[in-house]
């Protein structure tokens, strides 16, 4: 009699656990339908990233705005439209310096625009960023190939800042605005 009761309790617990797992799975699926999570976040269709670029060489200063809009994404890559305009005082902003689409590969260990984070880059520390009301903790990397210091958010893969100085000029690109994309993260 006692053995029969223990078997019934064990069966009820196993059945209850199975039902809970099924419900949990359905909850995750439902949340993905309402709020699709594309990882990495930098490749979400509709995401718009705007960078302020400053180029200085001696007494010459040039300001640019770079807008990257993610157009589409599939399993192995994403397509982005990139527009760079000159915003230097006195320049004609109607003539783009660069206006084209680019296809970038998505793979483990790559940041946005196929930047290799682990094989080549050397981590140099962290830096806090706040853009469009969102806070980021960026990891600063030194790129031995170019000499640039690139700050990338580890959670999203988004480039927050690029700084380079050498050969008589300084180049700085800083993320100033984020729009669009899906910032929900259901899994």
From TrEMBL:
The protein here is known as Uncharacterized protein
Domain of life the protein comes from: Archaea
């Amino acid at each position: 009699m006692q053995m029969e009761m223990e078997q019934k309790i064990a069966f009820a617990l196993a059945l209850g656990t199975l039902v809970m797992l099924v419900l949990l799975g359905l909850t995750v699926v439902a949340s993905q339908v309402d709020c699709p999570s594309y990882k990495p976040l930098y490749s979400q269709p509709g995401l718009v990233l705007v960078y302020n670029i400053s180029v200085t060489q001696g007494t010459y200063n040039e300001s640019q705005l770079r807008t990257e809009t993610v157009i589409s994404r599939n399993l192995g890559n994403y397509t982005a439209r990139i527009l760079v305009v000159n915003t230097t005082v006195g320049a004609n902003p109607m003539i783009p310096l660069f206006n084209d689409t680019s296809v970038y590969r998505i793979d483990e260990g790559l940041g946005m625009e196929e930047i290799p984070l682990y094989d080549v880059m050397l981590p140099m520390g962290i830096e806090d960023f706040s853009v469009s009301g969102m806070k980021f903790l960026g990891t600063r990397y030194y790129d031995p190939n170019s000499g640039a210091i690139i700050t990338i958010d580890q959670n999203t893969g988004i480039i927050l800042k690029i700084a380079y100085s050498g050969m008589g000029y300084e180049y700085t690109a800083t993320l100033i605005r984020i729009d669009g994309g899906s910032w929900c993260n259901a899994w």
